[in-house]
Amino acid sequence: MASSSHPCSSPLGSLPVGSERVSGSNMDVWTLFNQLTQKHEAVNLGQGFMGFPAPDFVKQAGSAAVLDESCTQYAPPRGKPELRAQLAKDYSAYLGRTIDPEQEVVVTAGGNEGLLCVFSAFMNPGDEAILMEPAFDQYIMNLKMIHGVPKFVPLRVKDGVDASRQIVSADDWVLDLDAVRAKITPRTKVLVLNTPHNPIGKVFTKEELEGIAEIAKEHNLLVLSDEVYDRLTYEGRPHVSIASLPGMWERTVVACSAGKALGVTGWRIGWMLGAPELITLCLRAHTRYVFTVNSPMQIGVTHALQYAHANGFFQKQQQEYLARRNRFLRAIDAVGLPYTVPHGSYFVLVNTSPIRIPDGYEFPPEIAQRDYCYKMCYFFTKEIGVTGIPPSEFYSEENAALGQNFIRFSFAKSDETLDQAGERLQKLKKFISA
Ligand code: PMP
């Protein structure tokens, strides 16, 4: 009989033990802050899902597809031909080359599944991937699933720019290419790029991408280009895909998301784009993970993309997000906190350095054991009534200090929610030291 002190024992005896892939003791940040949000009735600007209705034409395209008999059975593992044809058309224009829908596109269960497929297709256990911090937390979890090793290189605010005192531009966050080179070993297989960037809102310029491309070519790396926010750039900022640069199509897999592009994160549709040799390998991983993605939403996305082009939806959506961004930033201006102005995605990093949490402020045990930015986020949720996400989630332990004085807010929310959050945030003034 199992001893009662065994961590996996129960009154019924020993319980199965989880694998290393899913190990980890802390509650994940999303569950933790969603629970706290409910408890303290806070406005939730934490998780990045849309807090406003999806467009009617998108929902109508989805519901028609559910009723369409041709969508009731398995789609091919590569994806429904109609969607691949539409994506090939759209991205041929974007990437400046003719994309072959038969060989260069795979439909995935959201952008996230595409990321896991790429890691699985190009990395053996112990192989390394370069991540630029702050990095979307799923990269690390996905690497863990395949026993891959993340190697971190931080994006840093340029010398001479003080993010704790002044409003900075997402352009001010830069990558040190020598620091990337220093992390490369014979086991480095993949370099992960995210543009537009979550959480900084940085849209990498062509020149910046050229520098990264040189390194990838020099060291024969596969670039996983996470472009899930490709339709969400502001103020005329052009989104450039590294796959469009000379010599990069052969070594880049682009991961995208209909969830972000059309405002339907729950539909779980995304896609991978790349040269046939790369996509063949990704398809093998994809076929093992999900075999094939649900049929109706693929057709729903196909028709929604067609309508979106015909009715100027993407331009309108950009304008709406820009207005939401500015609405939120005006509220932060009124508080007097510094932040990074994002040019893409739908996140804002607010710098919390000027805020003083009162001495002796009490934290529950699940927060007390975490780092400073968790405590600051808890303070925001409980005291101010607005939830954000602690950016240390996006940093490795070695560089966690870089994220300590930031909090990430999502502005993919309704005007009412943003206004309510903005109003509550004004309460911060009394905690800001002169
Ligand atoms: N990459 C980044 C940078 C993201 O922020 C997200 C979603 N939060 C994804 C990938 C995953 O997208 P999807 O919801 O389509 O799986």
UniProtKB/TrEMBL annotation:
Domain of life: Eukaryota
CDD domains per UniProt: AAT_like
GO MF term list: kynurenine-oxoglutarate transaminase activity; pyridoxal phosphate binding
Keyword Transferase among UniProt keywords: yes
Keyword line: Aminotransferase, Pyridoxal phosphate, Transferase
Pfam families attached to this UniProt entry: Aminotran_1_2
GO cellular component: mitochondrion
Transmembrane spans: none
EC numbers for this chain: 2.6.1.7
Protein name: Arylformamidase
Species this chain originates from: Dispira parvispora
Lineage: Eukaryota, Fungi, Fungi incertae sedis, Zoopagomycota, Kickxellomycotina
Gene that produces this protein: BNA3
